[in-house]
Amino acid sequence: MPQSLTLRPALARLPLQRSGLRIEALPEGTVLHLLAPVGSGPAGLTAELGASGLSLRPVSPGQWFAVGDAVLSNTARAALAARLKPAAEVVDQSHGRVRIALSGPMATRVLAKGTAADLSLTAFPIHHATTTLIGHIAAHLTRIAEDRFELIVLRGFAESQWEDLDRMSAEFG
Amino acid sequence: MTPYRLPQGGLIDRSTPVSFSFDGQALQGFAGDSLASALLANGRLLVGRSFKYHRPRGILTAGAAEPNALVTIGRDGRTEPNTRATMQELYEGLEAKSQNRWPSLDVDIGSLNSLLSPFLGAGFYYKTFMWPAAFWEKVYEPFIRRAAGLGRATHEADPDAYEKSWAHCDLLVIGAGAAGLAAALGAGRAGARVILADEHAQPGGGLLSETAGIGGKSAPAFAADLLAELAALENVTILPRTTVFGWYDGNVFGAVERVQKHLAHPDAHRPVERLWRIVAKQALLATGAEERPLVFGGNDIPGVMMAGAMRCYLNRYGVAPGRQVAIFTINDSGYALARDLETAGVSQVTIIDSRPEGGIDYAGAARIVRGGVVRDAHGGKALTSITIAAGGKTERLRVDALAMSGGFSPIIHLACHRGGKPHWSDEKSAFMAPSGLQGLSLIGSAAGIDGIAACLEDGAAKGAALAETFGFKAEKPAFGLTAGEIAPMPARPLWTIPGIRGKAFVDYQNDVHRKDLGLAVREGYGHVELAKRYTTTGMATDQGKLSNVNAIALLAEARGVSPAEVGTTTFRPFYTPVSFGALAGPSHGRHFQPVRKSPLHGWAEKHGAVFVETGLWYRSAWFPRDGETDWRESVARETKNVRINAGLCDVSMLGKIEITGKDAAEFLNRVYCNAFLKLPVGKARYGLMLREDGFIYDDGTTSRLAQDRYFMTTTTAYASGVMNHLEFCAQALWPDLDVRLASVTDQWSQMAIAGPKARKILETIVDADLSNAAFPFLAAAEVSLFNGQVQGRLFRISFSGELAYELAVPAGYGEAVADAIMEAGRDHGIQPYGVEALAVLRIEKGHVTHNEINGTVTPGDLGFARMVPAAKPDFIGKRMLERAGLNDPQRHQLVGIRPLDPAAIFRTGSHILEKDAAAALENDQGYVTSSCHSPHLGSTIGLALVRRGAERHGEEVLVWNGLRGEFTPGRLCSPVFYDPQNEKLLA
Amino acid sequence: MASLLPCPHCGPRPREEFTVKGAAQARPAPDASPDVWFDYVYLRDNPRGAYAEYWHHTSGCRRWLIVTRDTATHDVFDSRDAAEGREVRA
Known about the structure:
A: 2 domains, C: 4-stranded antiparallel sheet
């Protein structure tokens, strides 16, 4: 029996450093899928999550991702899930979703090659999030700062998404 | 004489010579030249041969409408046929070749077609290639195929990159001439998000060829100033070399940007073309107007050119058309050309003006023939003279260039792309854009407005007004006075010129001449859509940009009606041809479609898996070992090993859905046809999902992990479909149920561990008690592994029919856990097995997949009738399942089938006949849905759907493969070939 | 080339992000007559003009929508979440 199990990273890739753009795989920390009744808001959840080092990303009516760079232990996750009940059910997606960050002034130019969402700051302000096709792959997109976006993509598609971003950003090499 | 470069003038950079070649001849132009202007500057008049008659053709226009000067540029994979020389920027080393000629442009055998021209008129194909029918395949089609088409595409792969991008704006301005520039400025200054697209390398439109002054500046300098101001505005994007080719639903515009088509050595990291989808709140069409040719004899002889094009080559590129120039015009624009020619030192200019009162303000040196027409032009490969008819007399005049202006047609294509019909204006003698358009309006010449000042005013006003509607405070820009412009006022049209001797072309690209249209009307094809097909006018790469209005007017005259009554053919995207490369974008090769990889992909690779594409997934199909020469060998070994020892199979790609909420049980009870309300915590259950029409949709297992939490698996193929379906049920059908769904397919790495040794192996890894008593068949639980290092989920379910488990662990741990299981199982003989072995195992056990669940089967057909409780008040498919036809005892039912001779084989898809029945479909009893070689039974086995199959076990039948002519005697049997008592399964 | 559909949650998005299911009809009661069920499962109007359909924003918010659009012009008159605005024909 192994002494400790080795995690296989979903994206064992070095960051892509372009002119005006950096693309990097974010730490495979925590992604919790929060499922609440449609129409209920995240109010009351933010404090609980903040205490666990997680920030909220809206997904769809009644659904959020709570994400963080650190791995939550099974116990901590279970405790958090218990505290969030009945406001929301928690489904762990920490291994099922992979986060990629795009930062720099060229980030919107690169993303516009994949998504039809309007990425202007007025239409897509900071903290705004949406799920959209980026090329062929559906991904969750959050604007973290004016020049910084976070992509959350299904683990199985992570490598393809990365290769697409590599191609889409090549002109800024 | 031929055209020549003037010693000065134009917007070209004479300090930067550019070398290029045409048909192998080395030539030189300057930076800023188009291929067309450089060819003219080198005295090349003849640049191509016409499509049908192979007539010598020269450059007719200076823009996108060019029908004649189509050349092939580049070589190898970068070969680009049908490139309009008028649109191609010159670059160092450009190689251009003429088309549609053999052996050379000067000596073209195909021109003999001209001698046959009496037989090649309208409807030629329809009339000629009619009989005998047998000639179609062998004679006519090969002949037409060889003769058809313009340039030749290369068979080599295009080495360049293409991409797509979305863009969003308040205002899209299409065309950067006077009106477009003014509109962009009017909206841009106010702060609106503006995209200004222009098909040329240098935005500015007609201003770049204009000698009038605006606000004290030359027109090109004025345009440059406006562009500089726009470029400095952060909210304005200028897209040069960008053709907006279509207007689509949702006010989306398609555009293609030729990013690097003007470069000798494109940067491999950048695309050569970029396809834009531009979402615009509003668009302004500032596409200008197209000058129309006049239909006189020999109007296609090299040296005949559109008047506006001649002026463009003269003023913008510093190329004079010749020494003795005639201008045939029906409006005042010819006088502006005459004035500019005179300024450039071309002294022998004759104006033939169809109007008796035309050009009264003209004070230049040119000779004017008022009330006259050019009846015929003469020459072979170059124009030599023209015949003028005026006042009842004719005159032959030696000229080496002839300009023509038959009026102007607003370029309204895009405005008609969404179904609006253009309308004829008698006042403008042109078709105008449809009325009542939303999201798009027209400005400047495209709206029928004449003159620079009026176009600037119109653009500025509309741009500023739209900015106000977007919520910006806008002020209409003012531009100062325009001086020295001769604007072409609307003129009386001149469609038919009497007494023509030569061929008078209407559509240059398709060699359609005036008489063809008359013939079409006489033969009953006078309707505009019929005439188009009958004569081919308006077809091919230029889509009749120059010819359509003339053709419609001539049809109208022949029919004795107004052009309004004839109407136009339908305008469709694309405005100009778009390359397949741009339309495909990056979606080829590695980027054709995404690859979906299992978390155990690396593990499978380590074990030498051969992968098979299943949708987007790559699944391990089998794991060949040294010495195995055939995939069947590997599959048979893997299969036997599972039956004897144990195997590990990656099933991560099964759809996995987590279902929570207080009504989750009720929800499952409604989406499955079998009962789910009473499924205990800690148990898995096989579930059948029906479609609303009563047939089976998908199957899988669902486990109750906690009171209000379920874990559903679906088949790989239907994973996304089932999730969509469940969401439909939850959101659209029963929004009052508290049920919440999350796809967790990617969260879990799931592996099947199957075989008599499976328990022994797993016991060393899973912390829980796995004894039959503690963890019986269909047990399901969250478990910890490796003394609590990892939390997983364990299910005692079996597709193979063996003692088996499915273990799910967080995806990132999948490979480590699989490695550990292989290590723990080494002494027990564990081997990986792929989906091929899995398929054999399940057929032996009589388990169904979508081979059997093929959209025509009910639960009863598969022997699951008793699973469907009659008492359930509702579930998807309940009412339709009650239909008599779905409960007919004659229905096809699942059976097993074996050949009588164990060495014989049959194939999936074969039909079942009664033993002595004739091989005909009327005797069809059913068909084989799955088949394989069973290592367990040592013969081919199959599953089949057979009429009344359940009661026919033991019957001898004939398996018939009509495609291959194979007949295999066989016997129907129970579909469960292996362990019918489930002793292994429950061990 | 492109068609945009307005998602009430995500804004205008291209057709590729959606899956269309067909006419937005109310599911009959379990005990409704067979005729009603046959109509629901098999019979569809095929109007030229306004038509209410179920669309799923599959590659977006994954909500089912009822989109009313013109079958001839593709003009979209209305788009609402199927769970909220259940104005479907029985």
